[in-house]
Amino acid sequence: MATAIPEVRIKGGSFLIETRTPEEIFTPEDLTDQHRLIGQTAEEFVAQEILPRSKEMEEKKPGLLRELLQKAAEIGLCATDVPQQYGGLELDKISSIIVSEKMARNGSWASTVGAQSGIGVLPIALFGTEAQKQKYVPKLSSAEWVGAYALSEATSASDALHCQTRAALSPAGRHYLLNGSKMWITNGGIADVYVVFAKLDGEKFTAFIVERGFPGVSVGAEEHKMGVRGSSTTPLNFENAPVPVENVLGEIGKGHRIAFNILNFGRLKLGAGCVGASKYLIAEAARWANERHAFGRKIADFGLIKEKLGEMVARAYAVEGVSYRTSGTIERALEGVHPAAPTAAQETMAALQEYAVECSILKVMGTETLDFIADETVQIYGGYGFSSDYEIEKAFRDQRVNRIFEGTNEINRLLMTEMLMKRAMKGELALLPAAQKLLDEMLSLPSPSGVEDGQPLADVAALVEGLKKTVLLVAGAAAQKFMAALPEEQELVGAVSNLVMETYATETALLRARKKIARSSEPAARAEADATSVYAYEAADRAEIEARRALARIAEGDLLRAYLGALRRFLRRPSPDRIGFLRRLADRALELNLYPFA
Ligand SMILES: Cc1cc2nc3c(=O)[nH]c(=O)nc-3n(C[C@H](O)[C@H](O)[C@H](O)COP(=O)(O)OP(=O)(O)OC[C@H]3O[C@@H](n4cnc5c(N)ncnc54)[C@H](O)[C@@H]3O)c2cc1C
Q: Could you say which DSSP state residue 234 is in?
C-alpha cells in the first residue's frame, strides 16, 4: 500500500537527544485515502455487527463471540498483520492501528478480536515453522479456529519468567507432557489453539502450540470481571497433556523472545485502541453536553464543563500523535522486510525491540489518557453516567483493565528507563555523554533556557528543549548517585519515565501542530495549536513537580540548589491564558459534536 511514511529512519529513544522536524514524523495529517477507507470499513463493521450485539455479548450468549469473529474475519479484521499467503491482509502498521482504534468502540469486542488478531495468531505467524504456519495461521485468520495466548499464572504474571507450568519429554520422545495452570486467558473459554509458555525440565522457558482437544487440557470457569464482561477470560489447566514435539514454537529455552516481543506489538495496538476509545468518548461527552440542560442553559455553556472537554481533547491530541508517530517509525523500520522471508520474524522483532520504549510510552499514555477521559465523561453525564442503562458506565468499567494487562503500567514505566539506560551503557544511544555535558555545564555556567526558533509555537519548542534537558538532568544525576543500585530506587526510575513520556508527547504534539499550521489555515490549525499549548504547559507543570521531588532524593545542600536552579531555567515559561485555550478547544468539539481532529 502507498503510504506517506517519512523517509528518515530514526533510532529508538533518540528523541531525547535529537531534534526532529515535522516532516520527519508520521502524524494523522499524513493519512492516505486508503487508510481512511480501511478505517471506515472497520468503523462500519463495528457499528453494524458489534454494537447491536453488545448486550448479548455481556450476557455471554453461547457461540456469539465465535460468530462475530468469523464475520470480522470475512473482511480480514482477524488478520490485519498476517501475511497474505496465510490468509491475512498484511496491512501496514498505520492501517493496523487504525483498525485497533475502530475496534475499541466496545471493550469486550476489542479484547476478543485483539487477542485473536494479535497475541493469538502473531506468535505462530512470526515464529512458527512453515508446517506450523500452514496448519494454524490460515484457520486463525479466518477465525475457523479461535486463538489465545497463555503466559500469566495465578502466582506469576508481571513476573512471567517464574512460571510454574512445566514440560517434560515423554518416555517415547514424541511428546512433551505439560503440567500446570494458566490464568486470565482472554478467549480462554472459546479458543481452539493456545500459545502456552512453560518451563521445559523446570528451567528452559519455552512456547508450545497447544490444541484444546489434546488430552489433559481443560478450561476453567469464566472469571467474573469488573469490565469487558462480554469477553471470555478463563484459567487453563494441563494434566500430563501430551503436546507433539513438533508443536514447540520457536527455540527451546527462548520462549521469552516470543513472549516479550509479542507484548511490544500488543502495547502498540492497545495504545492505539485507547486512542480510538478516547475519541469516541469525547464525541459522546460533547453530544451530551450540548443536549443536557441545567439552570436553564445547556451544560456545554458552563466553564467547568468546557474545561473538562478542553482537557480531554488536548490529552487525546497528544497521545493520538504518539500513536501515529510510533507506528510510522516502526513502519519505516519494517520497510524491506518481506513477511514471507525466513528472516521476517527476526527483522520484525528487531524493529519492535528498537522502539520498545516508544511502544511502552504509548501503552502507558494511551491507557492513562483513556482512564482520565472515561472518568470525565462519566462526570459530564452526571447520574446517567453512573447508570448501567447508558453505554458510558460500561465504557468506564471496560477501560480499567488496560492499565493492568500487556504489562502493568508500573512494569512498563520500569522497562522504559531500564531499556534507555541499557542502551546508553552499551553506547547505542548517546545519552550518557549528553547527560554528562549537561551536568558539567550546569555546574559551571548558567545555560540558556530553550530556544526561540522564530516559528509558530516557539514557546512550546523552548519547553520541549527544556523537557529534554530535564530528563537528562534527573536521569544523569540519578545514575551518578545510585549507579548499579538505581533499579532499587523505583520511584526515581518511575519519575524518569514520566519525564521521558512528557517529553515525547509534547514534542510530538508540537511537530504535529507545526505540520498542520504549515499545511492549512485557520481555524483547524488554531485548534491544533491550542491543544499543543495546553498539553505542553501542563506537561511542564507535571515535569517540574516530578523533577523537584526526584532531585530532592538525589542531592542536598548546594548541589540540590544547583540542580533546582538549572531545573527552573530549563522549564522557565510564560503564563499564557490557558483557560482561553481550553475554552476554544471545547467550543470546537462542541461545534462539531466530535473529537475535533478526527
Ligand atoms: C481481563 C484480563 C485479561 C487478561 N488476558 C491475558 C491473556 O490473554 N494472556 C495472559 O497471559 N495474561 C492475561 N492477563 C493477565 C495480565 O497480563 C496480568 O494480570 C498482568 O500482567 C498483571 O499481573 P498480576 O495480575 O499477576 O499482577 P501482579 O504481577 O501481582 O502485580 C500486582 C501489582 O504489583 C505491581 N508490580 C508487580 N511487579 C512489580 C515490580 N517489579 N515493581 C513494581 N511494581 C510491581 C503491578 O504493577 C501491580 O500494580 C489478563 C488479565 C486480565 C485482568
A: E
Instruction: Establish whether 24 is a catalytic residue.
Output: no
Domain limit, last residue, from 231, 249, 267? 249
Ranking 17-21, 149-153, 297-301, 336-340 by mean pLDDT, the lowest is: 336-340
CA 272, CA 456: separation in Å to the nearest integer?
Answer: 28
Is the distance from the beta carbon of residue 152 to the nearest atom of ligand 1 less than 6 Å? yes
Domain-located, residue 574: yes
- pLDDT of 547 higher than 90: yes
Cα 157 to averaged position of ligand 1 atoms, centre (Å): 5
Same domain (yes/no): 266, 224? no
Using a pLDDT cut of 90, give the percent of the chain over it: 86
Confirm or reject: Cβ of 368 under 6 Å from ligand 1: no
Torsion angles phi and psi, residue 179, rounded to 5: -135, 135
The atom number, within ligand 1, closest to the CA of 154 reads 26
Residue span of the structural domain in which 189 resides: 147-249
- Burial of residue 404 (CB within 10 Å: 0-12, 13-18, 19+) is middle
- 207, 250 Cβ separation under 8 angstroms: yes
**508 and 473 share a domain?**
yes
Q: Residue 49 pLDDT more than 60? A: yes
- Closest residue by Cα to atom 24, ligand 1, is 157
Would the pTM of this model clear 0.90, i.e. be above it? yes
Q: What is the pLDDT of residues 302-312, one digit of tens each?
A: 999 999 999 99
What is the distance in A from the centroid of ligand 1 to the CA of 249? 23
Q: How far is the CA of 237 from the centre of ligand 1 (A)?
A: 19
Q: Is residue 289 part of a domain?
A: yes
Ligand 1 center to 372 CA (angstroms)? 21
44 and 156 inside one domain: no
Among 24, 43, 153, 406, the active-site one is: 406
239-253 average pLDDT score: 97
Ligand 1 atom at minimum distance from 188 CA: 8
H, E, C per residue of 41-54: HHHHHHHHHHHHHH
How far apart CA 282 and CA 376 sit, in angstroms, is 9
